[in-house]
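Field reference: sequence -> structure
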Amino acid sequence: MKNSIKLTALFLLAGATVFAAVPAKAVIPSTPPAITFSSLPSQKGIDVKVEKSEKAIVIVSDKDGNVLRKDILSNKKGMEKGYVLTSLDNGDYIIEVNANGKSVKQDIHVYDEDQTKMFIIKA
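Structure field:
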């Protein structure tokens, strides 16, 4: 009988400590900003869109690393901007977007086709 009382008291004590424990805080991982590139069909260029970020830096450079254009996008101005590529010479270029510590680079090839400036987004 003494053993059953001791055993019951032990289970009650163990059960009370389980319910009295401080619950863990839920950790929600932060999602990185979504950075997308699409084409501007009528203007022959690239549309850059950044979601879930306060600020983004867009850099357009040539294959040698020379910066041709640098923009800062913010929520106040909108996180989407189009870049017309018709004024670029034929060749390879890089569009880089930096937002919340994440960097995404996209290779672009500009060329002429039937006297029209065209571009390809390389995969």
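Note: The CA atoms of residues 101 and 111 lie 32 Å apart.
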